[in-house]
C-alpha cells in the first residue's frame, strides 16, 4: 500500500517561517518553509514557536514564484465526494495563496500590476471546479494499472507513484518532490470529474463510480490548443474510467478522448467557426506515431471513433486522420469514421445504434477489467475506444456514455446483479443516476476546456433530444463564442502559468503582460457602439420629416455596419490572445 499523505494539518505562520504541522495520530513531523531563503526542511512539533498564528488547512497544493517572490498555495476547504474501497475521496473547493514576503515595497508600480495580474491568473485556475484528491488512494491510475504493479511501486509515496499526466499540481510540488523525506506533505491533485453512487438493482447493492482524469500535458482552452505537440501529447486528452464494486469484486471500463492527433490549429478570429488549418510543413507522422505508440503501451489496442463531419470545413481533418491511420498500418489500431451530425440530423438520435452495432464485436474483444473478491484478476481490458469530435466534448461524451452503458450491462450480468435478459435501460432508478452522472461529466469537461457547460446533455440525461435542449445549446454556444474570442487569452495564460509552461522572471526587462494593444482594438469597437447608439437615437427622436430621419439613420447605420465588418475582417486584432506562451501558428 502506498505511503499515505498526511490528512490533518495545521499551518502556523510567523514573519520568518511557515510551519505545516502533521496532526495525524502519532505524527510529530512539521514541514518548515523559510520565508526569506525559501529553504524547505523537516522539523518536529516542539520547534513551532508559540507566537505563531495558527489555522487549519487540508493540504499543500505547492509553491510558485511570481514577481513579488514565492507564494505558498494551500487547500482551505474540501467536500467529501465519497468512499472508494474504504478510501475517502475529497474535492478541494477553496484555496489560499500566501506570500513569503511581508511587504511589496521592493516592487515598482509596473511590477505590482504584473504581480496582481499573475495572482488573478492563479486564482482563475483555482476557481475552475474539479480538483480532487485522496490522502490514502492513488487517483491517477486505473484499477488495471494498479493491479499490475511491483511491491516496490506499492511502497512509494502517492507523489512518487502518481501518473504525471494527471497530477495538475506537479509543477507546484517540484520543490517538495526533490526531498523524499517531506513527501507525506505533498498531495497529488487530479483535475477532472469524480462522482460516486451507491445503487441497487434487484435488491443487490453496488457502488458505481465515474472518474475523468484530465491530462496536464498540452492543456489549455478550446481554440488555442488543438491537435498534438512534438511529443505526441494531444489537446484535451481525458481518461475516463467507470468502476463497479459489488461484494468485494471490482470491474472497470476505461475510455479515452483527445484532439485529432495531427498538427492543426483553429485560432479565434471573431467568426463563429474559425476555419481549421492543417500544417503543410510539420511532420505529421512523427507526432502521430509518438502519440499512438504511447497510447498502445499504456492502454493496448486502439479503436478510434472519429465523430466529426465528413463534409465542409471538418472534412480535411477526417481525411487526414484516416490517411495517417492507413499509412501507419498498425494492427493495434482500428479506425471508424461516423458523421454524427449527418447520421443524427432532424433529431434522429436513435440512429446512434448504427455505430454501437458497428463496434459491438470490437467492444467484446476489448473486454473490461475484472478482479474477484479474493483479489484474483478474472479479466483484463485489452484496449480502449479513443473517441473524438472537434472539441472532444459534446458528441464525444454522448458516444462514451453509450459505450460505457453497454460494458456496464455485461459487467453487472457477470457479477450476478442483473438477471439474464434484463436490460439496464429498464432499471428506471439506476438509469436516472447513470444519465445524470454522465451529463455532469460532460459539463465538467466542457467548462474546463470550452468555458461553458456541454451541449447535447438533454439527450444524455433523458435519452431524447428536446427543443428546450436545442435552446440551451444555442445559449451555451453564444457564451462559448464570447469567451473563446474575448477572454480565452487570459484563461490560456492562467493555465500556462499554473502548469509551469511559463515561469515568471522578475528581472525581465520587458514584461509580456505589457504588450500594447493595436489602436484598432480600442478605437473601432468604440466607433461601432457610438454609431449604433446614434442610429437608435435617431429612430427614437424623429426629425421634422421622415426624409431627414431616414438620412440620419442611414448614415449612422452604414457607419455601425461598416465598422462591424472592418472589425470582422481584422478579427485577429480583436480577440483576446495569450501573452505568456506563444501558441504555434499553423501555416
Short overview:
With 587 residues, this protein is an alpha+beta fold. It has 16 helices and 20 strands.
Characteristics of this structure?
alpha+beta; 3 domains; 587 residues
| Class per helix and strand makeup | alpha+beta
Radius of gyration based on Cα positions:
27 Å
Spans of at least 5 consecutive residues with low confidence: none
Q: Determine the N-to-C terminus distance.
A: 50 Å
**Average predicted local confidence, pLDDT:** 89
Helix proportion of residues, in percent?
Answer: 25-40%
Largest sheet report: 13 strands, mixed
Number of domains: 3
**Global geometry:** globular
Counting DSSP H or I runs of 4 or more residues, the number of helices is 16
Strand content: 15-25%
User: How many β-strand stretches?
Assistant: 20
GO cellular component, one term: Golgi membrane
GO biological process, one term: phosphatidylinositol dephosphorylation
Organism: Rhinopithecus roxellana (Golden snub-nosed monkey)
GO molecular function, one term: phosphatidylinositol-3-phosphate phosphatase activity
Amino acid at each position: 500500500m502506498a505511503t499515505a499523505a498526511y490528512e490533518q494539518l495545521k499551518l502556523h505562520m510567523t514573519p520568518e517561517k511557515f510551519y505545516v504541522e502533521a496532526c495525524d495520530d502519532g505524527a510529530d513531523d512539521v514541514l518548515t518553509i523559510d520565508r526569506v531563503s525559501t529553504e524547505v526542511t523537516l522539523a518536529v512539533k516542539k520547534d513551532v514557536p508559540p507566537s505563531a498564528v495558527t489555522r487549519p488547512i487540508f493540504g499543500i497544493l505547492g509553491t510558485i514564484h511570481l514577481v513579488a517572490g514565492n507564494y505558498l498555495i494551500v487547500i482551505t476547504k474540501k467536500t467529501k465526494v465519497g468512499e472508494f474501497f474504504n478510501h475517502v475521496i475529497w474535492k478541494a473547493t477553496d484555496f489560499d495563496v500566501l506570500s513569503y514576503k511581508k511587504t511589496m515595497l521592493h516592487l515598482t508600480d509596473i511590477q505590482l500590476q504584473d504581480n496582481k495580474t499573475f495572482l488573478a491568473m492563479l486564482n482563475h485556475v483555482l476557481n475552475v471546479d474539479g480538483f480532487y484528491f485522496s490522502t490514502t488512494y492513488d487517483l491517477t491510475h486505473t484499477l488495471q494499472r494498479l493491479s499490475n504493479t511491483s511491491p516496490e511501486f506499492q511502497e512509494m509515496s502517492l507523489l512518487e507513484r502518481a501518473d504525471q499526466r494527471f497530477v495538475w499540481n506537479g509543477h507546484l510540488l517540484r520543490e517538495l518532490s526533490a526531498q523524499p523525506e517531506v513527501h507525506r506533505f505533498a498531495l497529488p491533485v487530479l483535475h477532472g470529474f469524480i462522482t460516486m453512487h451507491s445503487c441497487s438493482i434487484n435488491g443487490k447493492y453496488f457502488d458505481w463510480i465515474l472518474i475523468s482524469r484530465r491530462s496536464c500535458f498540452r492543456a489549455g482552452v478550446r481554440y488555442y490548443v488543438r491537435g498534438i505537440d512534438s511529443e505526441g501529447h494531444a489537446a484535451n486528452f481525458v481518461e475516463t474510467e467507470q468502476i463497479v464494486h459489488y461484494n468485494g469484486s471490482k470491474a472497470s471500463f476505461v475510455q479515452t478522448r483527445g484532439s485529432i492527433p495531427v498538427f492543426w490549429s483553429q485560432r479565434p478570429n471573431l467568426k463563429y467557426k474559425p476555419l481549421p488549418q492543417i500544417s503543410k510543413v510539420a511532420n505529421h507522422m512523427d507526432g502521430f506515431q509518438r502519440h499512438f505508440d504511447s497510447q498502445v503501451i499504456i492502454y493496448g489496442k486502439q479503436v478510434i471513433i472519429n465523430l466529426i463531419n465528413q463534409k465542409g470545413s471538418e472534412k480535411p481533418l477526417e481525411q487526414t486522420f484516416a490517411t495517417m491511420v492507413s499509412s501507419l498500418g498498425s494492427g493495434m489500431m482500428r479506425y471508424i469514421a461516423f458523421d454524427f451530425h449527418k447520421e443524427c440530423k432532424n433529431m434522429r438520435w436513435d440512429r446512434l445504434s448504427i455505430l454501437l452495432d458497428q463496434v459491438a464485436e470490437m467492444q467484446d474483444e476489448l473486454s473490461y477489467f475484472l478482479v474477484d473478491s479474493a483479489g484474483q484478476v478474472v479479466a483484463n481490458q485489452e484496449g480502449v475506444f479513443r473517441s473524438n469530435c472537434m472539441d472532444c466534448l459534446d458528441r464525444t461524451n454522448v458516444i462514451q456514455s453509450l459505450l460505457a452503458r453497454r460494458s456496464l450491462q455485461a459487467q453487472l450480468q457477470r457479477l450476478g446483479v442483473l438477471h439474464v435478459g434484463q436490460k439496464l435501460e429498464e432499471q428506471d432508478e439506476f438509469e436516472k443516476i447513470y444519465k445524470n452522472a454522465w451529463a455532469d461529466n460532460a459539463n465538467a469537461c466542457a467548462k474546463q476546456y470550452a468555458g461553458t457547460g456541454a451541449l447535447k446533455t438533454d439527450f444524455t440525461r433523458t435519452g431524447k433530444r428536446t427543443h428546450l435542449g436545442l435552446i440551451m445549446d444555442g445559449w451555451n454556444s453564444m457564451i462559448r463564442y464570447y469567451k473563446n474570442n474575448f477572454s480565452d487569452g487570459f484563461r490560456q495564460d492562467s493555465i500556462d502559468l499554473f502548469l509551469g509552461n511559463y515561469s515568471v522572471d522578475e528581472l525581465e526587462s520587458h514584461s509580456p503582460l505589457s504588450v500594447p494593444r493595436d489602436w484598432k482594438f480600442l478605437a473601432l469597437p468604440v466607433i461601432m457602439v457610438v454609431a449604433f447608439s446614434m442610429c437608435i437615437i435617431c429612430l427614437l427622436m424623429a426629425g421634422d420629416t421622415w426624409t431627414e430621419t431616414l438620412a440620419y439613420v442611414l448614415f449612422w447605420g452604414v457607419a455601425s455596419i461598416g465598422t462591424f465588418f472592418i472589425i470582422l475582417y481584422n478579427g485577429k486584432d480583436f480577440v483576446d490572445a495569450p501573452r505568456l506562451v506563444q501558441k504555434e501558428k499553423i501555416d
